[in-house]
Amino acid sequence: MSVLDARATARKSVESVFDIAEADGVALYWWDDRQRVLTPLAHAGPLLEEKELPVIHPGQGLIGAAFLEHRSILLDEEYADSPYMTAWARDYGVRSEYAVPLLARGRMLGVLSVMYGHARGIDPSVRPAIELSAKGIAATLGVVRPLAEAERSVGESMTLAKLMRDTATHVDVNATCARVIETACRLTGADFGFVGVLEEGGAARSYGAWGLRARKGAGAGSLFVGLPAEDHGRTLVITRLPERPDVARAEFADAMAEGARTMLVAPLGEGAERLGSLVLGWRVDMEPTLRQISLAETLGGRASAVILHARAIERIVSQGHERRSAADLALVFDASLIIRYVSPSYRDVLGWDPSEMIGRRLFDCLLPDDVPKAEQHIMLSRLEHSGRIAAFSYRVRHGDGSTRVLESRGVNRSEDPVIGGWVLYGRDITSVRGLVSANGVADGSLSRLLDREAIEETLHFAAADAHAHRAGLALIIVDLDRFGAILGDVRSEVAEALLREAGDRLRSVLHGGDRIGRLGADELLVIAAHTDETAARERVDKLLHVMAQPFSIDGSEQCFSASIGVALYPTHGLDARTLLRHAGIAARAAKRSRFGSAFYDMESDRSAAARVLAVSALREAIAHGELRLHYQPIFDVRTGQVVQAEALCRWPTAPSGLETPDAFIPLAEHAGLIGSLTQWVIRNAVEQWARWRDIAPASLSINISMEDLSEPDLAERFERIFAETKVDPSRICLELTESALLIDVERSVRTLERLVALGVSFSIDDFGTGYTSLSYLKRFPISELKIDRSFVTNVERDPHDRTIVRSIIDLAHGLGLGVVAEGVESVGALDLLREWGCDRAQGHILAMPMSPEQFAERFFQASLR
């Protein structure tokens, strides 16, 4: 049996338990005799997918306790407040757990852990099945222990290599230390850790803290555990910390407050230079192995290299900047205009995270309108000023959404072995230019918008307050599609007006205690305290209504479709990060659906991995021509003859459940594949109509999306296809939904008019389900309305549906438009449509969608009987 066989066997075992227990995560831990730790061998479930599990020491967390005590342990409601809650379990969203020891012939081999993302007891009937599975797993995998240990060693080496590779060019100390500490804790099983760095004057500063229960700032010096001067260069191991009076110095106060019982302190520095320490802590008594000590020292060396490099760059950059102040900005970019270093002042001046800027192109930080001018200035300056960039100004977007004006100048330091690039110095001159910030004093309507850091802080305390008062809490994310792109395309004062209006609309429907934040250019957030599910749904309905109203942009009106995701405390999460993640998942689910809003659903989350695979399969199907077109006849209600056909896409090789357009079209829209898919449909449908030139019905209907409508060359593409296929454009009818037309009204009208000039006609599909007003209907060059099937299907039984259908028919005829009823499923419905003067109809009772061969064979016989 190979190592891969061992992994496959373990994986299959945990997946079996995952299904039996209906769990959210299952982990299999194996005892390593040599290292004296429990190591992860396999795991499954959405809570643990794509996660790196830490090693665990006996007695550490629920898994370590089950191993040490040789018994199964279940923690449910009390888990979040119990000493068994570990940092990694909290981060992954584990809220209840059942740990079962793996015993074979009386010997402890490991632990099987069954986890849930919310507090709930395991069905008593399921627990015996889990324990029986644990016995089988222990017996089956008992022979592969050496292979499992070898695989852990290989995985450990790969993790270290990836860390070194990913941070090879990093100069952001906090971001790199965070990666180093998280890796160290997961590989050694430490409960928490941080990097303590000695600053000028002997002060201490902590970076990259991971696993700490208390909320600490980056400058919490008392958290630092410093090495005495005489111990510099040595790694210290301190065991049984609370009982050791010889090490009870003030530096250990916070560590002991964290419940630390074992500490490992590895020195940072190069040669005689003393930088600080890498500190790991365990809340159990244990003796770190030589491998764990070696890992800490190796990772400490990585942190040391980054700290020394960042200090060298900052020192040189500072020396080259006259009259440097705390508000000055500095960055380094290379010959490819990729940012390699960013000064911490960017966080204070612009609200940007320096670590997120590193690796981006220089011009990505500017407003799009200012990029050509700045690009030309920098290129000319580099050529004409022998290594200097003359002063120039440009606009950027502050983290709070406001527009700022910066002035920068640069100098070439490419030959410097430490810097190796151009240094760009800048300062904020917004006040000099007289621009008013979007959240400045003059307006103030957005001044209370929380940024991302404040969102987490506010949400943390709101959850604590909800817990104390046994109340609910709703986290609502409002995603306005294309809103961010519009902000970047318009003048700064117009963008600010849009932001103010969006914020005011939110406040118009919220309660006094609600807080509003901004996650991104097109994502707003509401923290609704003391709100249960019913109140949250009422809030969402109001938000959808106010956000659906048109926004005025430079004299024209545009609508933005809103997708709203909701996560509830405590049902969907107990901490800020989990609630944010689950609300984001719900917002993406709302975007995929057509309902506009969604509450977090664990089952939908569980299918996320399946969606990734489905998107990949759909991309391959489009690229390799695996899709097929079917055609559904549309009949003249009066004569019974086929006068039209609608092209419908099918995916014969689709994964189960995705064969129909209702399933894979939303998937394509969400994955950004709808443009490619529609192009394939248009090309193949028109070519088919060309082959049927003499026998086909009068016209062919093809559905296009809002993404297609926004393409500037849509008319030119159709013109080329018509020229190549010799198909008369008047025989093509394009179907659009109401929501697609309203995304950008002015652009939609222009695009439709260009296509109408070619001879193409247009139909509004699913009419009656959107927000089209009569004024909009009058503006669009539409020739036909298609009544949505939801009104037609029950037209015989539902008097409201009868009224709606008759009204739409009368409205269409009053405007000189044709009208098609889709979803006709009975003879009675067809008779009513004929009585009311409906022009055309389609539905399963008339004719099902059929392949091209079936359509051609039955075409001349297709009529109403």
Give an overview of the whole structure.
The chain has an eight-stranded mixed barrel with strand order 23-24-25-26-27-28-29-30. Strands 2-1-5-4-3 form a five-stranded antiparallel β-sheet, with helices on both faces. Helix 5 packs antiparallel against helix 6. The chain is an alpha+beta fold and 865 residues long.
Give me some keywords for this one.
30 helices, globular, eight-stranded mixed β-barrel, disordered C terminus, 23% strand, alpha+beta, 865 residues
Task: Draw up the topology in text.
Elements: H1 3-21, E1 25-32, E2 37-44, H2 61-69, E3 73-75, H3 87-92, E4 96-104, E5 107-116, H4 127-141, H5 145-166, H6 173-188, E6 192-198, E7 204-210, E8 236-238, H7 253-257, E9 262-270, E10 273-282, H8 290-319, E11 329-333, E12 339-342, H9 345-350, H10 354-357, H11 371-384, E13 388-397, E14 403-413, E15 421-428, H12 430-433, H13 452-468, E16 473-480, H14 483-489, H15 492-509, E17 515-520, E18 523-529, H16 533-548, E19 551-553, E20 556-558, E21 562-569, H17 576-592, E22 597-599, H18 602-606, H19 608-623, E23 628-636, E24 642-650, H20 661-671, H21 674-691, E25 699-703, H22 706-709, H23 714-725, E26 732-737, H24 738-742, H25 745-758, E27 761-767, H26 774-779, E28 784-787, H27 789-792, H28 799-814, E29 818-822, H29 827-835, E30 840-842, H30 852-858
Parallel strand pairs: 21-22, 24-25, 25-26, 26-27, 27-28, 28-29, 29-30
Antiparallel strand pairs: 1-2, 1-5, 3-4, 4-5, 6-7, 6-10, 8-9, 9-10, 11-12, 11-15, 13-14, 14-15, 16-18, 16-21, 17-18, 19-20, 23-24, 23-30
